[in-house]
Amino acid sequence: MEETSISEKKQSLLDKIQDVSFRRGIAYPTGEIYGGLSGAFDYGPLGTLMRLKLINFWREYFVKDENHFEVEGSLIIPEKVFEASGHLAKFNDPLVQCKSCKSMFRADKIIEDKLDQNADGLSPEELDKIISKNKLKCPSCEGDFMNAREFNLMLKTEVGSVSGNVAYLRPETAQNIFTSFKRISHSMRAKLPFGVAQVGKVYRNEISPRQFIIRVREFKQMELEVFFAEEQLDDPPRFEELADELLPILTREQQAKGIEEPILISAADAVKKKILPNAAMAYYLVKEKILFEEVGVNPELIRFRHMLPKETPHYSGGNFDLEVKLSIGWTEVVGNAFRQQHDLTSHEKASKTKMGIQHTTGNVIPFVIEPSIGVGRTMYCVLESCYRETDDRDWTWFQFPSTIAPYDVQVCPLMKKDGLEEKALEIFEELKSEGFETIFDSSGKIGKRYARSDEIGTPYCVTIDYDTLQDDTVTIRDRDTMEQIRVPQEELPDAMVLLLTGEYGLKELEDLLKESTE
Amino acid sequence: MEETSISEKKQSLLDKIQDVSFRRGIAYPTGEIYGGLSGAFDYGPLGTLMRLKLINFWREYFVKDENHFEVEGSLIIPEKVFEASGHLAKFNDPLVQCKSCKSMFRADKIIEDKLDQNADGLSPEELDKIISKNKLKCPSCEGDFMNAREFNLMLKTEVGSVSGNVAYLRPETAQNIFTSFKRISHSMRAKLPFGVAQVGKVYRNEISPRQFIIRVREFKQMELEVFFAEEQLDDPPRFEELADELLPILTREQQAKGIEEPILISAADAVKKKILPNAAMAYYLVKEKILFEEVGVNPELIRFRHMLPKETPHYSGGNFDLEVKLSIGWTEVVGNAFRQQHDLTSHEKASKTKMGIQHTTGNVIPFVIEPSIGVGRTMYCVLESCYRETDDRDWTWFQFPSTIAPYDVQVCPLMKKDGLEEKALEIFEELKSEGFETIFDSSGKIGKRYARSDEIGTPYCVTIDYDTLQDDTVTIRDRDTMEQIRVPQEELPDAMVLLLTGEYGLKELEDLLKESTE
Question: pTM score, two decimals?
Answer without folding.
Answer: 0.95
